[in-house]
Each structure stands twice: as C-alpha cells, then as structure tokens.
Design a protein that fits this description.
This protein has about 130 residues and is of the alpha+beta class. The chain is built from 4 helices and 6 strands, in the order ααββαββββα.
Length: about 130
C-alpha cells in the first residue's frame, strides 16, 4: 500500500471511530506521545498530550452530541487532514462549523493533530 493509501485509510478509520464512539479504535491509531491541539478558550481548547489524553478529548467532544460530517480526506506527501462539517444542538445553543483536522503521521500512526476552525467564537459559546 502506498503512503497516500495508508494516510487515506488512517483518515477514514479515525473518522469512523469518532462517529461511532470507538475509543479503543481511536487509541489504536495514535502514537503513545500523540497530541491534539484545538483553538479557542473553552472546555476542549488547548493541547491534549499523550494518546490517552487525546482519546479523552475525543470522548469529551463527542459527549456534546456532535454530528461529524466528513467532507473530504486530504493527503499530503507525509500527512493527512480531515475536512469536516460539525453540527450539534444543546438547548438554545447551535454549533455549525467547518474545520480541518490536520494529522501529522509517524510510522503509520497519528502523532499529532491540530484542528483549524471556521467559527472559534461559536465553538467557545457551545463548549462551555
């Protein structure tokens, strides 16, 4: 399998595991020292350090009832990104954001994740 196919498959698996709340599946895709950085100033912002912390971050995000719509899996020479449209409702609050989740790969696993958002203010309001 080429690097591009491997990277694409990792992206597909990561999204599928996130959408189905398969936390062991997500953990299996990560290096032990994986990180996940999110912008904003709210309960899911900042950097989760270590694979277990990354899984906890994914659980916390999913606990808000998000619909993770996969738009595209993008691959570069060395890495992979997911283009997503996330939506959710909680009481009067509505989340409707587009994002890119950029994954840096190492030895066939995800070593770091950085998320870029279209609406940081909306994210801050939703994830209180």
């Amino acid at each position: 399998m080429s690097h591009y196919e491997t990277a694409h498959q990792l992206g597909k698996q990561f999204h599928a595991y996130l959408a189905t709340a398969d936390w062991d599946g997500i953990r299996s895709l990560l290096t032990d020292d994986a990180t996940w950085t999110l912008p904003g100033d709210n309960t899911i912002s900042g950097t989760a350090e270590g694979a277990d912390a990354v899984v906890e971050r994914a659980k916390k995000i999913a606990s808000y009832g998000l619909n993770f719509e996969l738009l595209h899996i993008l691959v570069s020479r060395e890495n992979m990104a997911l283009s997503l449209h996330n939506t959710a409702r909680r009481g009067d609050l509505k989340l409707d954001e587009y994002l890119s989740t950029v994954c840096r790969l190492r030895d066939g696993k995800i070593a770091s994740i950085e998320t870029y958002l279209s609406d940081v203010a909306g994210m801050n309001a939703f994830f209180v």
